[in-house]
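Risk register update: the risk of archive-format incompatibility is retired. Evidence:
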Amino acid sequence: MIKLGVFDLDGTLLTSDGRLPETFYRDVELLHCRNVSVAIASARPAQFLFEMFDRDVDLLISGEDGNIFFRGRQLLCARYVSGELTARVYAIAAGRDDVAVVCSGPDELYVSAGHYRRFIAWGLGRFMPEAPKEPAEDTKLCKIHVYCRDGIEAAKQMVSSVFAEMQARGDVLETGYGWIGITEKNSNKASAVRFFQEYLNVGDDETAVFGDSSNDIPMFALTEHAYAMKNAPADVRQKAKRVTEDDNDHNGAMQALLRLTLPPDERGPV
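Archived output:
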């Protein structure tokens, strides 16, 4: 019996234009009536996640690829990036004009004035704090976000080349839309799922996960109820146990979980 459903956001739970499905809150309420907890596992900073969800809905939320955890607005746990890792990212970025860096802590986003100007010039001002603020040496950061001006393929290439030497010290992942996420080693969406399982005392066979990108693959290994989205790239679909019948523009992830939590004789294909 499924007791926990964990959803990626972009390309999974959200439509292609970045909206929650119209039935999202009704579906969450229905799942709660079936004793199923709903969790979000996203690469996004917590500040963006809070803007998206109704304050009163009972959701478990993980941001920063498994580095920060909330129940509603209550902070449950945070994991922090070392100063050494942060300094190395900034050193790499200092020699390039095609990337910009923004860092996130539990409560704030941090970006230097120079990189803030790049984000504005590249049309990403809506993601930035209104007043740029650079992290101090002792600022606690959950994740480093590097944006590649030249897009997804450039980000993938940078992960395997420019940032390759950092893989021994941290997790470096292309997280979609030209973004690279950098965290401490073994902080990823699999660790986010594990946190939620331990918090709720839920097992692997009681957990279903849904994703569409390379940074969702680590959580696919944790359960037989691992779904890639119909709209996911082929290499991501190959890593999952199942593929949703519908894509993200037709509420495919939530519909799959709703079917999965019905009595077996009522489910149909899942």
